[in-house]
Each structure stands twice: as structure tokens, then as C-alpha cells.
Amino acid sequence: MIFVAATVFVFAAHLYPAPPPISHDAVLVDRQYSLTLYVTGAAFVLAQLGLAWAVLRYRDHGQKARFVRGNVALEIVWTSVTLLAFVGLGILGRDAWAGARFTPAAPDAIQIEVTTNQFVYTFRYPGPDGKFGRLDPSLVSAPAGNPLGIDPNDPAGRDDIVLASLTVPVNHPIELLVRSQDVIHNFFVRELRLQQDAVPGMLIPVHFAADRIGTYDIVCTQLCGLGHYKMHSLLNVVSQSDYDAFLKRQALVQ
Ligand code: CUA
After folding, report:
1. Residue 228 in contact with ligand 1 by CB distance below 6 A
2. Burial of 42 (0-12, 13-18, 19+ CB in 10 A)
3. 114 lines ligand 1 (CB under 6 A)
4. Which of 83, 117, 205, 240 is packed most tightly, with the most Cβ within 10 A?
5. Mind listing the pLDDT tens digit for each residue in 70-123?
6. Interval between CA 196 and ligand 1 midpoint (Å)
7. pLDDT value for 254
8. pLDDT mean across residues, the chain
């Protein structure tokens, strides 16, 4: 009872509120989260009340114990109600989760590759030609300045921009291509409510559009080794003109 009260208090008093959402999908996730919390909260309270009622109603007051074989009608009712609640919440939450994954990104989305390894994020922009260069795993060498293993013989890779943080324009669709060089990592931005595993051998697309300029934390949420706790980067959401200037600057540097 004390634990339940304490837990409900933490949520009801907004003691540890999530940071404000910065995308439409994030708003959908918040809505779904609240809905799930209300539905499961109501089910929890009802179940506890039912339990209390059964304990009081059937407590020992000298009566003879009676064997009950069960009730098929009741079984069907509570199984259907549970099924409806779970499947219903799943269908209602489809857009919040699948919107970023199962629907293709807008045709004008900016593609940025996200590579994870122990314990850093590396972001690659295709550069002025709009094409990512070929990667060759045998060329991967951070000390030699080629953490991604970009093949120097592929002209498409010469203008690729490789950076340790992610910069995107505000209100513009962004498609991330998430990959890993070693173990399973994760790309998580709280304000986007976007969390995607990076799995070795897979190129996982996920898209978003941030609607608020600012700097946000990118953290890894898969226990990926001793340095997991410090695996971190930054998402800079900037104005379109700042983004254009950023690209121009980076193209000169690379
Ligand atoms: Cu990468 Cu935890």
C-alpha cells in the first residue's frame, strides 16, 4: 500500500517530468503513454479492490470450506477484456511507434548515417554530392582519421562529412540510418521520445522532424560495455540558414 501510494504520488505530482516533446511523434508517444498509464492504473485499482473484496467476503468465520471448479463465463469475460485492452492499446499506439519506422521518410528527408561503436557516436552526411561513399570494414581506423572505413577510391565518399555530433535543421524531416560496428548500442533522445537500437549487421532507418531549436542529449541505452555510462553525443537543432552555413563550413573542413 505504501509503495503504491509513493509510486502514484511520483507520477501525480510530476516530480520527475519528462522534458517537453520537440516533435509531433513525441507528442503522440506522450499521449499513448498517459493513456496506457490510465488504463493499466484503472485495471490495477479494480483488481486490488476485487482482491480486497474476496479476502473480506470469504474470510474465515467458522464456515465449511467449499470447492469451486471455476466459472467459464467469467473466464471468457476477463480474458476478452484483457485481450481487448492489450490489442486496443497496441492499435492506438501504432502511429506513435510505427510512424517513425514502418512508414517511409518524406522524399525530401535529409539522410544522415549514425554509426555506433564502443563508446562513441559517429555521424556521416553525404556531402554536396548527396551520396554516401562506400564503406570498407578493413579500413576502419579511428587513429588514422577514418573511424567509419570510408573507401578513398570511391569518389562518392570524398566529400562525406564525418562528425561526432548531430546537427539538423528545425522542422525538416530527417532520416537516420542507424548502424553498429561492434555490439548492440542505442540512439536515444528524450525530447524526441525516439529510441532505436543499433544492431551490428543491420542498417536501421528511423525518421523524425524536430520542431524546436536547441541542444539535446543523445545517449546510449543498451548496456554495451564498461564505457556505456559515458556513451553520449549531442543533437543540435538549428535554423535552416544556420544549417546551410554549417554544411558549407563542414564541406570546407573535410
Ligand atoms: Cu553503447 Cu551503451
Report:
1. yes
2. exposed
3. no
4. 117
5. 889 999 999 999 999 999 999 988 888 888 888 889 999 999 999 999 999 999
6. 12
7. 67
8. 92
Closest atom of ligand 1 relative to the 184 alpha carbon: 1
Q: Mean pLDDT across the stretch 152-181?
A: 93
Instruction: Write out pLDDT tens, residues 180-212.
Output: 999 999 999 999 999 999 999 999 999 999 999
User: Taking a C-beta distance cutoff of 8 angstroms, is the pair 23, 208 a contact?
Assistant: yes
- How far does CA 201 lie from the centroid of its chain? 20
Residues 6+ apart with CB under 8 A from 93: 32, 35, 36
Cα of 216 from ligand 1 centre, angstroms = 17
Q: How far apart are the CA of 156 and the centre of ligand 1, in A?
A: 30
Residue whose CA is at the smallest distance from ligand 1 atom 1: 185
Work out the average pLDDT over 165-187: 96
Q: What is the separation of C-alpha 68 from the centre of its chain, rounded to a whole number of angstroms?
A: 47
Helix axes 2-12, 24-57, angle to 10 degrees: 160
Q: For residue 48, report the distance from its CA to the centre of ligand 1, in Å.
A: 39
Residue found under cell 525530401: 108
Q: What is the pLDDT of residue 93?
A: 87
Q: What's CA 237's distance to the chain center, in Å? A: 18
| Bridge partner residues of 204 (DSSP) | 178
Nearest Cα to Cα of residue 233 among 143, 148, 132, 114: 114
